[in-house]
Automatic annotation (TrEMBL), chains A, D:
GO terms for cellular component: molybdopterin adenylyltransferase complex. Keywords: Nucleotide-binding. One of its GO terms (biological process) is Mo-molybdopterin cofactor biosynthetic process. Belongs to the MoaD family. This is Molybdopterin synthase sulfur carrier subunit.
TrEMBL record, chains B, C:
GO terms for molecular function: molybdopterin synthase activity. It comes from Kiloniella spongiae. Pathway: Cofactor biosynthesis; molybdopterin biosynthesis. It is an enzyme of class 2 (transferase). Belongs to the MoaE family. Its EC number is 2.8.1.12. PANTHER family: MOLYBDOPTERIN SYNTHASE RELATED. The keyword ATP-binding does not apply. It catalyses: 2 [molybdopterin-synthase sulfur-carrier protein]-C-terminal-Gly-aminoethanethioate + cyclic pyranopterin phosphate + H2O = molybdopterin + 2 [molybdopterin-synthase sulfur-carrier protein]-C-terminal Gly-Gly + 2 H(+). The keyword Zinc does not apply. One of its GO terms (biological process) is Mo-molybdopterin cofactor biosynthetic process. This is Molybdopterin synthase catalytic subunit.
Length: 83, 150, 150, 83
């Protein structure tokens, strides 16, 4: 499963994207966010800044209870500030 | 039409291309966003716009389709740049063409409001204290919320 | 700034002139009005805009001053042409520059609404049945009335 | 007193402007509009189309009860249709 990070999530976690293989118990976006901090200290930001976290699955905005599956492109990023 | 690009654009030329030969168009509304040299609390020497290639195009296409569903438009265009830009440079351009001015104005504002809250762009400002990611503004959410269909 | 002129104008150049060097400007809203080839009930081959020299400039100056009183603008411009024009030609241009997009959009709409109801211009359309003076539209009065301060 | 006509008022009355010398009893805009038809048949349009008549005194919009005086520039025209 491919996961991408943008803006200060990218700089804090320290990479723009990676391949992850969460355990089978990770079924939803919320499960994924609970599991990510187990990958290392940098990842605790997804819990600390959960209010400012936006999620996309396959380039569409997603909710916490949305299901994720093998082959999905997941993206985590802060609220957008373009325009 | 939507375009996500690093290079600059020519507003006058884009309006001409969009209206050229279509004599049903009576009104052309446009909005041009520029880099300011002052943020809420610091002077800015430049900014870098990061984006999510793929999703950006997808979102802008969806937003434009929605505007065309809500208003009868003869033509529309969204251009958004990414990369490093200095104060005074052009960031974003939205143009809407319609028979009458009301729909041109409304759809142009709608596109800007939704682009501001949905298009995956993030601004990193270069300030005297170093790089600073811009916080999202509540007023942008408020602006976008007025378009929610009841 | 206001200009009443017979000759055409260059939208891109006007925006550049207005924003040039002012890095406090974050948003530029503009509206461009074009000659349509279809009126409510006839095909139009051309139109002639008559105006009241002197009063036109006076009214446009008043309208622009009022917009600058209501919104914090960094720059604004109204250009209105008179004389004979064919379908597709540019009639009117309003540009407003501000720190944020909301005031740019609102003041641009305000200027167009007031110009439509206050600036002494009259359209004579050339139709297959001959010259026809355009009737004022109730919707323009409605649009202007929403800006009346309560 | 100079008076100007625009659009279909100009074409119906048949001239763009003229000097007029109304009697002293003509004190307001309304008085002027009542008196104008005495100048000729063409001028009856200011009564017939009174709903569509707009008046300016010295290049500012004016009301029916506004006073007029020597040296004023009066203009009569239909609702504006520019933009």
């Amino acid at each position: 499963m491919k996961i991408l990070y943008f803006a200060w999530l990218r700089t804090t976690i320290g990479k723009p994207l990676e391949e992850i293989t969460p355990p089978e118990t990770v079924k939803t976006v919320k499960d994924l966010l609970d599991w990510l901090p187990s990958l290392g200290e940098n990842y605790s930001i997804v819990q600390e800044k959960s209010d400012l976290l936006r999620i996309a699955i396959n380039q569409e905005y997603a909710n916490l209870d949305q299901e994720i599956k093998q082959g999905d492109e997941i993206a985590l990023f802060p609220p957008v500030t373009g325009g | 039409m939507i375009r996500v690009q690093e290079h600059d654009f020519d507003v006058g030329q884009e309006i001409k291309n969009l209206t050229n030969g279509n004599h049903a168009i009576g009104g052309v509304a446009s909005f041009l966003g520029l880099v300011r040299d002052i943020a809420s609390d610091a002077e800015i020497s430049a900014m870098t716009l990061e984006h999510y290639p793929g999703m950006t195009e997808k979102m802008l296409t969806e937003i434009e389709a929605e505007a065309n569903r809500r208003w009868e438009l003869d033509a529309s265009l969204i251009i958004h740049r990414y990369g490093r830009m200095e104060p005074g440079e052009q960031i974003v351009l939205v143009i809407t063409c319609s028979k009458h001015r009301k729909s041109a104005f409304e759809s142009c504002e709608f596109l800007m409001d939704f682009l501001k809250t949905k298009a995956p762009f993030w601004k990193l400002e270069e300030t005297p204290e170093g790089g600073k990611w811009v916080d999202a503004r509540d007023s942008d959410d408020t602006a976008a919320s007025r378009w929610i269909e009841k």
